Amino acid sequence: MRERLFSIISKYGLKANSDLGQNFLIVPDIIERNVERAELDEKDVVLEVGPGLGVLTDALSRSAGKVYAIEKDRRLVEILRREYDWPNVEIIEGDALRVEFPEFNKIVSNLPYQISSPITFRFLKYEFEKAVLIYQLEFAQRMVAKPGDRNYSRLSLMVQAKAYAELVERIGRGAFWPRPKVDSAVVVLEPKPRGERIELDENLVRALFQHRRSTVLAALRKSHHMLGLDREGFKRVRKSLSDMPHAEKRVFQLTPVEVKDIEEFLVAEGILD
Prior knowledge:
- It is built from eleven helices and nine strands.
- 37% of the residues lie in helices and 18% in strands.
- By secondary structure, the protein is α/β, with parallel strands linked by helices.
- The model has no long low-confidence stretch (mean pLDDT 94).
- The strands form two sheets. Strands 4-3-2-5-6-9-7 form a seven-stranded mixed sheet. Strands 1-8 form a two-stranded antiparallel sheet.
- Helix 4 links the parallel strand 3 (66-71) and strand 4.
């Protein structure tokens, strides 16, 4: 596999496009472990974002019934179609943040790192069983951080409101070509049952986490403009906010359920729509 990858690179005189975040995974063991983690069989339809030179795609094609691979780089689309003859793989040329997704039930990807956040939140708008995803290590650590942890952030909260996230493997820089400047990690995402998912007001979450070390009340005071309030408007509602649930709790300690409590209080008070 590794030999074939470098053979293709040499054949086409390829250079990775840093603007597209191209770092190709070249370690077969990691690829095989990720395919195993996805627990694929012939009934599964897999979505892959950023197939690159097709090494993960090739492994997926041998285990899944169907693979849709979305690739933005036209050069790589042409190479994939020329070099591989996969009967169950469909290459979709386009931007994974914009193209219409086909129906799928699992996701396995070595993601372009610069779209990690928006593509993750796009995934979470769909119904799927499991996703096995490679991210930059720091991003992965924030995804799985728990309330009160040093890495707990807006990302942690928004992901965990919708899904279970587990960091299952750390990957060194030498596992990729070209070698990135940071380590990476594998995260397994599984959507929570519908009744356990929490829809949160994104403006409120941003307003709170801009001041994650502050108390909830102090954070909302500092970010009052994000709630559509000017300084005088905030003064008028400040007294009622002192009765808000979790008002004296630090923002980085809030669970998704507690943020929902705050949101519901603000809506009842007419502060949020």
